[in-house]
Amino acid sequence: MSIIDDLIEWLPWNRIPAGNRTVYVNHTQKNKFCGNQVSTTKYNPINFIPKNLFEQFTRVANLYFLFMSSIQLFSGLSPTGRWSTPIALIVVVILQMVKDAYEDIGRYLSDRTINNQTTIRVTSDYEETIKWKDIIVGDVIKLKRDEPIPADMIMLSSSNSTGKCYVETSQLDGEANLKVKEAINADPQSIVCEGPNKQLYEFAGVVQQEDGSQIALRVDNLLLRGSTIKNTDWICGAVIYTGKHSRIMMNSRKLPHKSSKLESITNRFIVLLFIIQTTINTVCAISLLIWNRSHRSSWYLMRGYDDSEIIVFLQGFISYFMLYGQFVPLALYVTLEIARLLQTRLHLEQDIGMYHDLTDHPMSAKSTSLTDDLGQVEHIFADKTGTLTQNQMNLISIALSNGNTYDDLSKCDQQCDQLFEALSLCHTVVPELRNEQVEYQASSPDELALVVGASRRGFRLLERESNIIRTDNHSDQIRTYEILALLEFSYERKRMSVIVKDQNGQIHLFCKGADSVLEKRIRTRKYDQNTLSQLKSFSGQGLRTLVICHKTISEHQYQVWYDDWYHPATTSLCSNRKELLQDAMDRIEQDLLLLGVTAIQDLLQDQVPETIKILNCAGVKMWVLTGDKQETAVVIGYACNILDHETMICDLSNCKNKNELMSEIQNHSGQQQPDGKSKAVVIDGDALDMLFGDYCNDVESIMNFLKFCLCCKSVICCRVSPDQKANIVNMVRDHLPQCITLAIGDGANDVSMIRTAHVGVGIVGQEGRQASNASDYAFAQFKFLQKLLLVHGRWNYRRVSKLILFSIYKSIALNVVQMWFFIFNGASGTTLFEPFLLSLFYTVFTGVPIGFFGVLDKDVSDDNIIRFPELYAHGAQNYHLNLKVFVGYTINSFIHSFLCFFIPYLCYSGGEAIDNHGNGTDIDGLGLASYTCVIMVVTFKLVLETRHFTLVNHATYWCSLLSFFLVATAYCLIPGPFYFAFMNASSTPIYWATVILTTTIALMRDLIWKSVYRNIFVFRQLYHELQDYDSRGHVADRLIASPYSDALQSPVRAVSGNEWYSSTSRRPLLKSIGKVVRGVIYRRSNEAELLVPSDDILSDNDRFREIVDTMTPGTPGTPVAEMSSSRNIELIEQYKYEDNE
Hints:
Layout: H1 3-10, E1 21-24, H2 48-56, H3 60-74, H4 84-115, E2 118-122, E3 127-131, E4 140-144, E5 152-158, E6 164-169, H5 170-173, E7 175-182, E8 190-193, E9 205-208, E10 214-217, E11 222-223, E12 228-230, E13 234-241, H6 247-250, H7 261-294, H8 309-323, H9 332-348, E14 364-365, E15 377-382, E16 389-400, E17 405-406, H10 417-425, E18 430-434, E19 437-441, H11 445-456, E20 460-464, E21 468-472, E22 478-487, E23 495-501, E24 507-513, H12 515-518, H13 529-540, E25 544-553, H14 555-571, H15 577-588, E26 593-604, H16 608-617, E27 621-625, H17 630-639, E28 647-651, H18 658-670, E29 678-684, H19 685-692, H20 699-710, E30 714-718, H21 722-735, E31 740-745, H22 751-756, E32 759-763, H23 770-774, E33 777-779, H24 784-822, H25 835-845, H26 847-856, H27 862-867, H28 873-876, H29 883-909, H30 923-945, H31 951-971, H32 981-986, H33 989-1015, H34 1022-1031, E34 1054-1056, E35 1059-1061, E36 1075-1077, E37 1080-1084, E38 1089-1091, H35 1102-1109, H36 1125-1140
Parallel strand pairs: 15-27, 15-31, 27-30, 28-29, 29-30, 31-32, 32-33
Antiparallel strand pairs: 1-8, 2-3, 2-4, 4-13, 5-11, 5-13, 6-7, 6-12, 8-9, 9-10, 14-33, 16-17, 16-26, 18-19, 20-21, 21-22, 22-23, 23-24, 24-25, 25-26, 34-35, 36-37, 37-38
Helix pairs in contact: 2-4, 3-4, 4-25, 7-8, 7-24, 9-24, 9-26, 10-11, 13-17, 14-15, 16-24, 18-20, 24-26, 24-29, 24-30, 26-31, 29-30, 29-33, 30-33, 35-36
């Protein structure tokens, strides 16, 4: 949120009132509350211009150009005239304003439609139809079936005789299942409730009736805006929160600001450019002093003889500062934003490959500023359930407390009845009768699986009312239970309980939850050994387990607990209400009897193992953060290719204290692994608590743990809470600031880590849309991650890198031409170019082509990128945008500017340039020739950089080039200093000869270098090979294993000659075998060239794996002779022979 937004929120009339609020139903309110009109727009007609300008000029680059424009307009010292920089700045600012307005108008139109919807207001005398925006706190609103709820309200009555209604909350939490709400069935005088907050699942309040009695309010009495009435003819409710104080609006705060890694790199380059510019300005100003000293007696100097050298230096410095002011590219940021916006809208969101037809959900993006970060991810933090798995549960096995196990539920006997009775009662599932069939609506796939499993064994849930639940058993006996209390599930409690009274008046407590929590609450304090072993067996099979418990409560015991603890906690409006309620539930959930254990199967999503394998080959480390048991998490790890049977698991979950934990880390770190073996870390929430308990002070322990994790193939964290997930992501972010992190999950418990990571991805699954709503990108399947990162991420990283470099290159190329000219103009700071044309160079003439290049260019086809995931490592290595590349582009821009000035200067200095009127060359002619050369060189340089040409590319490249000649021709027809200048200059043959000659010579170096770089093996890259395949319309022949695939977990190494080389080495592996391209071997045969990347997805690679496993790896600087290279040669040649056979 911007500073202006913070100031607006700080104003007294916009502050959220603290404490409880009292609402008088159908009466005038004593306190003033906000209206019900909502606005999700960022701007309004009044604040759009000032707020947008404020935001734009918080950028350092824009402030820099505003300062330059002010000097140009008011100092009179600018050699380029008053308007060159201001016009360019105005164009850039207007483009940014148009973009921001376009995005905001859509939100405004949506808001207007919502605010003008109608509803019915009920008074003591009549009913009237009003618009949503006219609703005020205290109104009684009547809603009918399928109508959306316009404001947060307490449900007073319902058409249902039981006082219940059903609501759909998909707009709130994405859950399509129906939820039951209960009416208070009273005519309240006033309602005292908590102040506005963001809690969707918690609420506390009290209804004050006319007779002085009170009714405690729960979240089941609260109807939230964004929900829809279902299966109920009508309801009436009293409005308590309106507009921006409604809970859906309280939760619609902006996502935390995230800036890309390339932006921070670009900012450093801009600082370097400013240093270069300042150095040039200083040298030029000193040269001006020297020139003035040597020409002090010249009569034609305009400056007076009495000017001090300090004033001359300052005036000269400012003049040159104006002259070279565009060293920092003015249009860079707005071009970046527009390119990223189009990358998102045209490529990411329109990619049919990331569309899931079963759920009809395409890929959606909520952020447009992170497209290049997708190509630099090094660490992925993934939830398990619903992210790696389908989150479609089936109850397949149970184990009773007596040790009996039933893997086939059809063989269950009467011993299982009490457990199935518990499953049919302990839940929040709502039964719904459709076409004479009972269908279940559940907020959790686990709950649905348990209830469905119980119903298949004859214990069917038939009906659920506000405090009544009806079931039948396999004898078709309908049983009615009175619900006395429902102790709901939370991620902190990891359990839920229900207290019911049966038809005989007996009170029962049924509880289900995680074994780690309920183990401490079971009466014997331990499991039956057979049950415990079966629990571990279930977890070892990758099944989700829950422990089911029971307790019989006496009437007196229940009443004491209810009166002394539960009722005071539920009716409390204190700030510690949550703690009071937690304490009350803990007191009754003790001394439980174990009924048994359930095992639920959750299958993997499609192509999860293949996706993780490809990501591993791309050099991305996987972290699995799950709340499941360790055994379950490890089994899923094996199934997902996160672990393999050659991986040594380093278990840190059994440590009793922090010293023991650090000792284990040190011991595992010191263990040497055999060749080809890898390590994996498994740690649980308790161990992480020891580690993060003193996060700020014990940095050394955290660093040791992180270093150990980085040496391992993968990390699995089990039994972790949402806060611990965020802490793990923060650990990597804080201590590895150059690494890009990505978090992916599907549930509310994943929101914290999704918002903490550099890039957050939400899976639209069975647990609602909390995760996708909080994410930067959302889709329906984990497998889409490979295309999001490897294809679009890599493309966008390269596009944005080239866009940044090219914007800097063209700015320097034009401005340094002025520097060369200063040698011949007496260091006077005279401009060589016409100011108006100069202002259009950065936007119209060269800005549009590079913008579309940043949207459309592709260096390698998507098929070959997926088949060769090693290409993705370029992003993590900053391959396309680093100091070396920046220096190279800067030097190239100086060379091109040198040629674009001195070739026209030499051509025109001979006096042969005579126009049609017999006039010789003047400064305008030389300036136009140099200016045209710069535009031509820059445009054709971009053509050389382009790998994927489309009609749009051709249109923008050539139309932008044509626009210069059209604008220059039209502008020279306007009377003024430039009158007919372009017509005269372009009428001479030497003008066109100079432009062609300069463009050819300048780009010849680039063309030769690119040819050498692509075709000389010392420099040739893997993507060059793949580009050759793409140019022929072919996909690389096939994939087989590389002995260096494991090295991608650390810097890639390759053998060359007599030494090991780093990943940047591009020398021959062993000439008798083949070559190495960035750690990837490929071989040549007489018939064809076979590329060999580090992936093994074909079954016929087993032989090659056996050969590779026997190779002796080396260390940096180790001669080949010491690495048994002859043995390696023999083995690879043996594989070649077998392959040919």
